[in-house]
Amino acid sequence: MSDYATTGAPRQPQPARKYMRPRHIVSWPLLIFGLIVGVAAGLAYAWGVSPVVEYDTEPWQLRQPDKAHYVVAIMLDYGYDADLNRAVNRLLELQLEGDPIQAVANIACNLASAGYIDSNSGLRAVRTMMTFYQLQGKQGCADTLLPSLQEPPPTTVVEVVIPTATFVPPATKTPTPDGPSGPTPTPFRVVVPTTAPQTEYILANISTFCSSTASGLIEVEVQDVDGEGVPGQQVRVRWDAGNDTFYTGLKPERGPGYADFSMTAGNGYTVDLPGRADPISEPLAAAPCTTDDGESAITSYRVIFREG
Question: Which of 7, 192, 251, 303 is most buried, by the most CB atoms less than 10 A from its CB?
Fold first, then answer.
C-alpha cells in the first residue's frame, strides 16, 4: 500500500547523500596547497623581482672568510701608500680577535697554507701582509712557508783602472825622450754592488712633565728630517731587571711616530732605537713628583729621536 493511501498525503523525495555529509570549517587540502603557492610566490618575488639590498653594512658584520679578504684589501692599500695609521684603524673596525696586527700574521699564514699564493696577485698580497706585520715585530707561519725576498743591493759606479794594451809607434829619426814603455793605463767604468747605509737617528730632545693621567710614562717620538713622525720604528727600553721592545705608530691618535712605555717607580731606564740610534747617556729615573693640582704622580719623559 502506498504512503498516499495510508497517510492521505503525497510522499516527499529524499535528499541526495552528498548533502547529508558533515561539513568542515577548514579544507585542509586547499589550505596546504595555498600555503605552498604563497611561499613559492613570495620567494620568487624576494629573490628575483625585488631582492633585499643591504645598506651601511659595517666591516665587523662580515663573515670570517670575507674578513680575511677585507684584510687583504687593507694590506694592498697599505702597500701603495704606507699609511700605517689608516691601516691600523681599518683593522680595528673589523673587530678581529686579539691583537689586530697578529691577526694579519695569522690570516697570512692561512692563505699561504691554502694555495692562495699560487697566483702572482696572491703572492704579492701575502708578501705585503708579511712586510706589514714584520715591521711591527710580529711573526707567523708564512715566514717559513714563504721566506721574504731579499732586495738586491743598490749599485754604485766606481772608477777602476784596468791596463789596456797600446801599440808602440815605429822608430823615427827624431829622438824621443826616454821614458817607460809598455801599456798605458786607462780608466774603465765598472759597476760594483754596495750596501746603502741605514738611516741614523740622533737624540734631539728630552723633557720631563708631571701628570696624574700620564704618570710614569716614557713618550717616544721618532721623526724624519722634516719633523714628521716615522711609523713602524722599533724602540727599546732597558732597565736593571729586563728590557722591552715596541713600535711607533700603534697609537694613531697620537701621531705616526709616537710610542710610549709605562715605568715602575724607583727604576732607571735607558731608551734607544736598535741599530739606528745610540742609547741615551743618562737613565730616566721613575721618581715621584707633584702635579700642579697637588696630586702625587711619577715623573714622565718625552724623548725625541730625529733623523740625522
Answer: 303
